[in-house]
Amino acid sequence: MAPTYNIAMVSDFFFPQPGGVESHIYQLSSKLRDRGHKVIIITHAYKGRTGVRYLTNGLKVYHVPFFVLYRSASFPTVFSFFPVFRNIVLRERIDIVHGHASLSSLCHEAILHARTMGLRTVYTDHSLFGFADAASIFANKLLKFSLSDVDHVICVSHTCKENTVLRASLDPLMVSVIPNAVVAENFKPLDPSELSSDAFSRRHPPPVRPPGPHDMITIVVISRLFYNKGTDLLTAAIPRILENHPNTRFIIAGDGPKAIDLEQMIEQNVLQDRVEMLGPIRHEEVRDVMVRGHIYLHPSLTEAFGTVIVEAASCGLYVVCTQVGGIPEVLPSHMTVFAKPEENDLVAATGRAIAALRANKVRTELFHEQVKSMYSWTDVAMRTERVYNGISGAISEAEFYGYDAANGAGSWSATRGRSGVQSFALIDRLKRYYGCGIWAGKLFCLCVIVDYLIFLALELLFPRDKIDVCPDWPKKARKSTGAVAGFSRN
Amino acid sequence: MAPPSGLHSSSHPSDFETPFPKLVRSSTVPAGLRSTRTDPSHLAPEDAYAPLSPHRLRAFDATDNVSGAESRTGRLRRKGPSRSGSRRRKRFQKLLWVKQSYPDNYTDQATFLENLQRNPRVRPYDFWPLVADSTVIVQHVCSVILFVVCFVGIFQERVSPVAVVSWSSGATFAGWLLWDFWATQDARGAAGDEDARARIMRGGHAYREFRPPLRQDSSGLDPSSALNASTDHYPQPRHPLSGHADSTGFLAPGDAHSRSVSSFNSITSQTSMANIPNSLATPAPTTTTTTAHPDATDGHDQTTPSDHPQTRLFSSRFYVRLSTIKSAILIYFTLLGLSPILKSLTRSTSSDSIWAMSFWLLAINIFFFDYSGGSRSGVAAAAAATTTTPGKPMPVASLSTNAALMASTVLASRLPSTGQVFSLTLFSIQVFGLFPVFRQCARRRSWRYHVILTVLLVLGAGAGVGMILGDPHHHHGWPWKRGLVGMVVGCLIAAVAMGGCSWWLIGLQKYKNEIYGPWDPARPIIISRRHWEDE
Questions:
Q1: For residue B61, what is the nearest residue in chain A, using CA coordinates?
Q2: Of B64, B80, B96, the CB nearest to A172
Q3: Could you give the CA distance from residue A162 to residue A131 in angstroms, rounded to a whole number?
Q4: Residue B518 burial (10 A CB sphere; 0-12, 13-18, 19+)
Q5: Mean pLDDT of A106-114
Q6: Which residues, in sequence order, are bridge partners of residue B525?
Q7: What is the ipTM of this complex?
Q8: B432: DSSP letter
Q9: How far apart are CA B330 and CA B405, in angstroms?
Q10: How far apart are alpha carbons A481 and A2 in whole angstroms?
Q11: What is the mean predicted confidence (pLDDT) over B151-158?
C-alpha cells in the first residue's frame, strides 16, 4: 500500500498572479490530491487575497502577510516566517515541504525552517541562472545556503539540472528531472465544429490546413516582450521573413518594454497589414490565438523548459525555436525547426518551416495526440510521488539512488550522505552548511543555530499541544487501494 | 524523430540496443583526478599556453561541481552492476519527451555537463605586454605623487608656489604647442584621406551599400544630400581611424579647456565630415552642426577638392586655438577670483581630517581613473564585432577627475596665502585635467614618447619624494643627494611593482574559473539592426 503524505507547497508565486510556476504548482497539487495526498499551498498575501482560501477540489491556500519586494518576490528575512510557518505546519500535520522557484525567498525560508522542525524538504527549480555577474553570484550563494540541507531537488529539464547542480554544489543523484506538462484538453487544435458564423470568425477566417503554395501562412508569437525572450531577434527577423515569403503574416501577442521596438519596426517597414499586435492576453486566450496560426515562432534567448512551445505543438502548430537552454529537450524534431540565436539562422529556419508546410511534409494534425501522450500532469505527479517516497524512506535508498549504500556512501557516513535519508541532528546539519565557503559557511552555521534557538523558544512559548489540528478536506478514495492510510513520520 | 544535432551525438532512439556499459568506481573517476595535478578544477600554469585541450575538457566534464568536491565524483555512477550487467537497455538520452527506462534522478556519465565550457574566452597574458600596459598606471600614480610632493613643498615653504606654477604652466604651454602640432598634422592627413573618399563617393557611390534603403540619392546641389552624405559615414566609426581619433580625442568630456561647444562645432563642420564619426563620443548631434554651416556643406559638393580642405583646415585650427586661449584665460581669472574663498573654505576643519580626506580622494582618483584611454577604441571595435553595441565611455572617469580636483581644493585650503592657494589649484588643474590628455595623446602618437614620459615621471616622482623626506629645517642648498637616492629607489620600486604585479597577475590566472553552458542567455547576433537604429 502506497503511503500518502501531507504536503505543503511553498512559493511566493501563486494565483492570482499568472505564470508558469503558478500553474505548475496548481496542476501538480491538484494531481497529487487526486492521488490521495493532502496538499496545501503557502504563499504570501496578494492584494485582495489574504488569509486562507480554498480552490477547486478543496485545495487550501494560506496567504501569509509578507512584505513584497519586487515582482511579488517577498522581502528576504531569514527568520520572520518561522512562527507562522510552524503554526501552519503543525495545524496541517505536514510531512513534506515542497518549495518552488529560486527567486522566492519564502520558499528558501520554508526549507530552512522545515529542516529545523524535522520535516522532509523538496525544492523545484524552474529557471536558469548564469555564473558571470555579481547578482548571479549572490543569488547562487543563497541558493547554496538553502539547498545545503534539502532532501531532494527537482528540475524541469536536464539543462536546468546541470545548472542547479553547479550553482548549489549538489550531488547529481539528489536532483531529479521532472518536466512541466500541459493540460492537453485546454490546447486542442481548432475543431471544425467550433467554427460558427459569429463576427469573430468572419473577421479571422480559420487557417487553411494544409496550406497550399499560395495560401496565407500565419506565424504566431506569444511571449512577454523582454530582451531575454529574444524580442530583438524577432524585430530584426520579421521584415526579412515577410520580404522573403509573400503570403505570410504575423500575429504577436504579449507586452513588455520591447513592444515599442516592434511597433517602430512595423511603422518603419510599413507592415501594418501583415503584422498584427494583440497586446497582453490572458492565459486562457492563448489557445484561441494559437489556433489562428500555422507556425509558432519562439525566439527566446534563455529558457529552462519552454512550456509555451509544448502548448503550441499541442495546438497543432509547427514550432520554430532557438536552440537555447532546455528547449532542445522538449519536443521531438519532427515538430520543431531549430535555429541558432542569430538573425540569419532564424530567418532561414522560418523559411524552412514555411517550405515544409507548403509542401505538406509536416503532419501537424497528429501533433495534439502525440503531445498528449508525452506530457501529462498525472505523470508529473507520479514521478514527484516517487521523490517523496525516496526521501521519506518508503522506497529503499538503494532503489531510489541506485547504488549500494554501504559501498557508495563511504565518506558520507557521517551524515548518511547528502543524498541519503538525511539526518536531522543539528550537528549533522551544521556539517553540511559549514562546507559552503570560508566565510559563508560560518555565517550559515550561525543562521542555522539561531533558527534552532528560535524553534526551541517557539516550542516553549506556543506549545505543540495548544495548537489545534484542523480537519482535513474529505478525500476521494484512491482507486487502487480504496482506503487511505495515514502516513506517520518516523 | 532525430534529436537536435549538436546536443546529442546519436540520432535515433531505435538503434540504441547497445548494452549499457558496466560502471565500476575506478572507471568513473575522471581522468583528471588520476593525473599528477592535485586539483582538476583549477587551471594549471600550462593552461596558459595550451588552453583547454579537448582531452582536458572531457576530464572536467565529469566533475560534478565547481568547488571540485572530488569525493563526490566517484558517486556519479548509478545503476550498480547487479542491474545493468545482464540487461540490455536503451541508452539514456537527454530528452524530456521520450519515456525512458531510467529513474528521474539518473545521471548519465557520458552526457552530464557535456556542454559545460570552462574559461572558453580566457586569453593568456604575456609578461612583457603586461608590463608595457602597466606603464599607464605608473604614469598616473607618479603624477599624483608629484602633485603631493609639490603641495608638501609649498606647505613646508621649501618651494615657492610661483615657481611651481610657472614651471608647470610653461610645461603645459609647451605640451599644448606639441599637441597642437600633432593635431594639425593628423587633421591634414585626415583631410586628404577624406578628400579621396569624397571623390570616390561622387564617382562610384562606393559606400552606397552601407546605406539604409530609405535614403535618397545624393546627386548634386541639394544641401540635404550633403547632410545625407555625412550621416552616411555613421557606420564607419567602428573602424578606428587613427588620425581622426587624435584630432577629436581632446574633445572628450572632462577636458577643461576645449570643451566649449563652439570650438567643437567649428571642428566638426570645418574639417569636413571626417570628424563626424568621432562625434559619436561627444554629445553634439551631427545634423545640427552640418545644417548650421551650410557654406561648409555646399563647398563640399560644389568646389574642386584640391585647395579647400587646406584653407578650411587652417581656419579651423585657428578657431580651436582662439577658443583654447579664451577658456584658459577664463579659468585663470576665475581661479584668481575664487582663491580667497577657497583659502577660508575649511578653516573650521582640523588638518587631520583634511589629510585623511585628501588621501581618500586621491585614492579614488587613482582607482577610478580611465586607464583604457586610447586603447579603448580597439576594445570597443572588438566588442562591436561580437555584440553590435558600440563601446561606451567609462561612466566613472569623471568621478576620478572630480575627486582629484576636490582633493586639491581641500589641500589648497590649508595653505596660508591667497597666492599659494591660487598656485596649487591651477597646478592641480594642469596635473589632473590636462596632463592625462597629453599623456594619452603621446601614447597614441608614439611608443617612444610614452616610454620617455614614463621614465621622466618616475625619476621626477622619486626625486621629489626623496627631497621632501629630508629634514625640512636644513636649507643648505638643494638636497641633491637625497634627490638622487630617491630617483634610484623610485626606479627600483617602479620596476619591482610593474614586474611583480604582472607576474602575480599571470600567476593568478590559474584560479580563473568561468563557467559557460547552455543555461547562459544566448547572445543574439543581429545584423540588420543598423538599418533602423542609426536613423
A1: A162
A2: B64
A3: 13
A4: buried
A5: 92
A6: A342
A7: 0.79
A8: I
A9: 17
A10: 8
A11: 87
